[in-house]
Write the structure tokens for this entry.
Amino acid sequence: MSTFQAPKGTYDLTPPRSATFLAVREAISAPLRDSGYGYIETPGFENVELFARGVGESTDIVTKEMYTLTTKGGDQLALRPEGTASVLRAALEANLHKAGNLPVKLWYSGSYYRYERPQAGRYRHFSQVGAEAIGTEDPALDAELIILADQAYRSLGLRRFRILLNSLGDKECRPVYREALQTFLRDLDLDEETRRRIEINPLRVLDDKRADVQKQLTDAPKLRDYLCDACKAYHEEVRALLTAAGVAFEDDEKLVRGLDYYTRTTFEFVHDGLGSQSAVGGGGRYDGLSEMIGGPELPSVGWALGVDRTVLALEAESVELDLPATTSVYAVPLGEEARRVLFGVVTELRLAGIAADFAFGGRGLKGAMKSANRSGARYTLVAGERDLAEGVVQLKDMESGEQSAVPLAEAAAELAKRLG
Ligand code: AMP
């Protein structure tokens, strides 16, 4: 292993690709910020118990994928494998739900950690932008979140994604279905681990990716046939609101998701250009989670979109984001005196809100102009001894190639004018 290699299953974000990641985070959060969601940030780690109780003892995330550690003080912590449990914990701790303004709408962006088998699109450290709407049961809220994620992906120019939608029922009807499913599954030809799963979390067997398992599941009882009237009506309303908003979705009764806390509405955004790791985002309603972690009854709904996979989806669709050059003006000094003077101009430009950069390191004109080109700057400022003696700098328009002498004292104002 090379000394400079990032740990297995991780990678670094470096320029220029890192700019795309920032733009994706920005694009995903923009519709949320415009819709009453406030920013929340929680620690990168939590007490193990939060996830064990919240995400579910029997889930792969908790049993196999969590990075756990014992601190020197003896605390059992886990690097966060997902965002919802932490955000709900933080909202409860801050009593946001008691401020009398429900739902509490929050968005977040950060790093998540799962000890998974690395492959294309699956990493041990990844990045999500998420949203949670806490404390309200209203189909319009479920619809809002799905519409905002759809809007985010569209604003990025993505087209080849689909929305899969399902209802998992509630504490009335799901147990009845669960039992019917268990009875069906127990008669199938399955391996030991899957048999154990039947007893702990039978719905997740439906999610098994293996063809031989899927073949046996064709006649499995369908959750849809067991939904109680309240859940059915709720789900129909979510579907109607999405349709009215022009958001296309596919009913997918096999969609169960890997976390235990979901109830009623569940959905996933999948992208058809990503191979096996096709889920770019997912979420749903989690009416029981607050109580599972020791809080009051707070019906809630949320989603998390994977930033890494969204970037891969953009690449799969060959979408080039329109990222404006970060540098508007690049200054190239020729000689010591010019260095001092132009450095001053650069500082002045920056204070005026103009993005400016400087040829550091006293390089020659040719190398410095190459850097100016690479920076994407619209203008360069070049000055040598003779220019300074005349009290001017050379201002070059990098698009037209035109160059003119501008009085030094007016350079910043002239650039501000030209850059609008
Ligand atoms: P989940 O909570 O598992 O539904 O994750 C939500 C989204 O996060 C997924 O749709 C992925 O886009 C992303 N995600 C989850 N796990 C990983 C991972 N190991 N590597 C990269 N992205 C991930």
About this structure: The chain has a mean pLDDT of 94. The longest strand covers residues 104-113.
